[in-house]
Structure of D-galactose 1-dehydrogenase:
Amino acid sequence: MPATLKIALVGIGKIARDQHIPALAASPDWQLAAAVSRQGHVAGVETFSDTAAMLAACPDVSVVSLCLPPVPRYEVAAACLAAGRHVMLEKPPGATLAEVHALQAMAAARGLTLFATWHSRMAMGVAGAKAWLAGKTVTRAHITWREDVRHWHPGQDWVFEPGGMGVFDPGINALSILTEILPGPVHLTSATLEFPTNRATPIAAQLQFSGHVSADFDWRQTGKQTWDIAVETPDGALRLEQGGNKLHINGAEIAGEDSIMGEYPALYARMAALVRTGQSDVDLAPMVHVADAMTLGRRVTVADFDF
Ligand code: NAP
């Protein structure tokens, strides 16, 4: 296997520009060899208007990273796997659980890597939180994930279309941390979902889980943004702030490990390791909770939302 892996990026939107392109440029593992974009362009990189044309023209691109919204992602991922390429998926890994199971089966049958990424699991405080909670009894946990959709998803109507997941688009990041750090599984017991009258997905949600675990997601918060998780145990309390990047245990700040990279550099380092060792990494636990909330949640309607 070559020292540098050739990769293509599909969907040159906000997250591709903010995170994927810089992370790839800074990594010795990767060469960004192609891009697929309906209207965008990546400077210095051959850009194709559709994935089939890229796959046909670039047989040496062994890995494709998909930065599309969840709904169009399955068709593209399946085409890449069918063409013998390893695939990396942005979060949430698909529009439905079943389509991700189908991709898993395709990848396994072809001996290809499928990596369903959860960038928040790579945040600085997450590994430390997981290590401290291992073997402990969690008596209570609460997530507060409140942000301004107009700031983080400017004009992205897809988040309010079916499959866009609404406030679960950021909320699933909190659930990816929760499912990583808790020493045992929890399951959703009830939920309230707030749908703007003019939109197909919720703008806020309150979730209750087994084991006194709860979550408050809201996309209408202006000013200070809040991405916190508080966990109580008989041995003390833990608090993750700033999306998992700041860890406090019993009130004292715990420094992240020096070796921890930024979230996206860490995702690409993991993808390189998975490809080189012939493994996949697909954990759907965060998305199961979202699907359960959509199944069990009580729907209430709230004021119209427009960007
Ligand atoms: P975005 O800015 O709307 O970009 C998505 C890109 O996908 C579009 O620019 C478009 O690129 C392409 N695309 C192809 N088919 C599309 C369709 N049917 N509808 C819309 N776009 C389509 O979205 P994003 O914020 O980058 O989010 C993409 C994924 O990254 C989501 O799953 C999101 O959860 C995840 N993510 C986002 C953030 C964030 O801060 N925004 C952070 C972490 C993860 P072309 O014009 O190049 O074809």
About this structure: The longest strand covers residues 188-196. The radius of gyration is 19 Å. Residues 263-277 form the longest helix (15 residues). The chain has two domains: 5-116, 120-259+291-302.
